[in-house]
Structures are given as C-alpha cells and as structure tokens.
Amino acid sequence: MLRAHWQRHLAVLVTTIGFVVLLAPIILPPVGAWLIVADPPLRADAIVPLAGDRIRVTYAGRLLAQHRARWFAITDMQLAPRAANKPYAQLVVDQASREGVPQAQIVIVPGTVATTYQEIQHILRCAQAQGWQSVIIVTNTYHTRRAGAIVHQIFRNSGITISIQPVANDWYQPATWWRSAEGWRVTLQEYGKYALFLTGYHQFAGK
Asked: What InterPro entries does the annotation carry (predicted)?
C-alpha cells in the first residue's frame, strides 16, 4: 500500500515537471520580456551608464563613438570594504578610457550612491548643473523597466529629454532567461524591487 502510494505521488510529480518543461518556452519568455523597455533613439548632450555591470560602460562607450552624445557621465557607487583599491567611479573611468572614451569627454557625477533611485537623483542634479537638455541612460535589459520608471518619475517636469537604452546583445534575453539560476535571480529581484518602487519604498528598491 505504502509503496503504491509513493509511486502515485512520484508519477504526479514527474508529470507535473514534464508539463512545466514543455510549457516553459511558452509561458516564461513574456515574463522576462515585460522587464525590457527602450525609448526611441536620441542624440543627446550626455550618456550615462548606470553603475553596476561593466557591459553598461562598454555599450555606452559604443554609443558615444557613434556620436550619440557629447559627454560621458559616470556615477560613483558604494563598494564593499576591500572590494577595490580605487573608488568605483575611477574604475569606470579606467575602463572607459581603455575602451576609447576620450578623457576630455568624461564627467564625474558628484556624490556616491547606493541605490538606483539615488543614482538617478544625482544624475538629474548633474544634468541641471551642466545645462544638459537631453540624456541617454544605459543599463542591462532586465533593469530597464524599473530604471526607466524611476528616471521618468524623477526627471518629470525637469525639461530634460531622457532616453532609456538597454545594452545590445545583453546576456538576459526573454527567450532564454529561465534557463539559468542567474536569470531566475535577477527576474525575481526586479519584479520585487519594481513592486517596492510602486509602493514608494524607494530606499529599499536597491541597485
């Protein structure tokens, strides 16, 4: 009896897993796709790769090389103790310079940030101080929904035109995100942080 009972449960489990595997390519891509947004292309005064993934810096540099902006703005992010022997902003300056961004076009956004919300606030203040009328924001694909919502909220009524641009050929893609643990991690994280943003808990919305 007990053996038959467990065999039935095992059969149900195997069947359920089979259905999930079969349906995953259908039901999961839209979940990832919802996180990805992009504004129309723009020629701007400045381009800013949001702090974090190095690929954001690389892609922003490519856009600068295409004359999409005049200035390359860099934010400074809090790093864990002993994470590096230089401030984050200097690490980005070093990377951007190696990848061809002219030092004369680099602008350091004043202040150090810990969250995306803080970062966008600092970018707005810098843009106003510099007299920029348009800014391109570059970030990973999965980050564009939340970052875009924050940007458009903070820049609202500023008179500054904003364009959110996802990194081209980013590792996170709707068709494949669910095949890796990292894909699941960032997807769940972004949905959670977006929900926190909508409720007004900006200080908890994270990077």
From this structure: DUF218
